[in-house]
Amino acid sequence: MTQVLALADDLTGALEVGAKFAGEGIASVITTDASLECTAPVLVIDTESRHLAPELAAAQVTRVLQLAHKPGVRLIYKKTDSTLRGNIAAELEALAGFYGARVVYAAGYPAMGRTVTDGRLYVNGVLLEQTSFARDPLNPITDSRVPAGSFCDVEEDVAEAARRILQADPPSLAAGTGALAGELAQRMEIQRGGKPPLPRIRSCLILNGSLHDASARQLEHLAGNEDWTVMQWTPQAGQSPMEIADENGRGIRDALKSASFDAVLVCGGDTVYGMLEAVGFPPIRPMGEVVTGVAISRVAIDGRDIYLITKAGGFGEIDILTQIKKKLHG
């Protein structure tokens, strides 16, 4: 029976939440279908609402909750971006309004340099609006203030937020980054199995579909990928970011048909969505994290199980792809 219902506004966020629970031995399923009948303890739904207008994003969250909420759910978790991209305030207000309760919201991710002080988000000690996220092509961030209002209680300490959430009467309402999801997965009393080991991956198709500078630098840093194949792409004049993501998704599908890769590694939530759209949105089974913030899952494509490794575009240090390859290939 599903006890945790989680929502994320893009697929890399959904996969990260699922990985946090799966890495603690808690079975999880990721889907874009809010009506999916799920028997796993954790169901994570991608609402695909990051690029919508705020009022449409709020309506999408309400619609998903109407379809997905079931008796017995103890925790409702709203995954938010660690650099405040998306319609956070509108979606948290919709969540609070649906249940008639306030949301406990922890925006920080200290392990990845995202910290909150006096209601403002810092990235490695720099105010958010002074970082490269201010130039994000789809969601430029010009204000470091953490969204707050009558709909939520903002907690600057992630561990304290988890403690409050788990002490509340069910269903408790929580929102935050992968850091808070991880704290809840560790502390929650819920059915657990064995933690799945990381696989050894010999051949991997890599595509960086993100337009963020960080992902481009990370790909340049990756060296010695003779058996990890980088798929190149060049945007056509006049293409929108979403058109690029859809085209890249179809390109990944075609590449997987023509060659037998053990895995595919995708940077950028929109590109992951484009790929899964191209293969019919099969349910995804998270296994855990390769490194912090990078999920690994299993997914059936054309009758064959492959590993899916996903990373948000602006996420991670410059050598993160090198770290991933060392962990899975060596």
What would you note in describing this structure?
- This protein is α/β, with parallel strands linked by helices and 330 residues long.
- The protein folds into two domains: 4-187, Rossmann fold; 204-329, 3-Layer(aba) Sandwich (Molybdenum Cofactor Biosythetic Enzyme, Chain A), CATH 3.40.980.
- It has nine helices and 16 strands.
- It has helices spanning 11-22, 54-68, 88-99, 158-167, 178-187, 213-221, 241-258, 269-278, 320-329; strands at 4-8, 28-31, 42-46, 75-79, 103-106, 114-117, 120-123, 126-127, 152-154, 172-176, 204-208, 228-230, 263-267, 285-291, 294-301, 304-311.
- The strands form three sheets. The chain has a seven-stranded parallel beta sheet, sandwiched between helices.
- Strand 11 (204-208), helix 6 (213-221) and strand 12 form a beta-alpha-beta unit.
- The longest helix is centred in the C-terminal third of the chain and has 18 residues, at 241-258.
- The N and C termini lie far apart (38 Å).
- The mean pLDDT is 91.
- Total domains: 2
Note the gap between the termini: 38 Å
Sheet-strand content, in percent, reads 15-25%
The name of the CATH topology of the largest domain is Rossmann fold
Query: How many beta-strand runs?
Result: 16
Q: Report the C-alpha radius of gyration, rounded.
A: 19 Å
In quaternary terms, these chains amount to single chain
Strand-and-helix sequence, N→C?
EHEEHEHEEEEEHEHEHEHEHEEEH
Tag the structure with descriptive keywords.
six-stranded mixed beta sheet; alpha/beta; Rossmann fold; Molybdenum Cofactor Biosythetic Enzyme, Chain A; seven-stranded parallel beta sheet
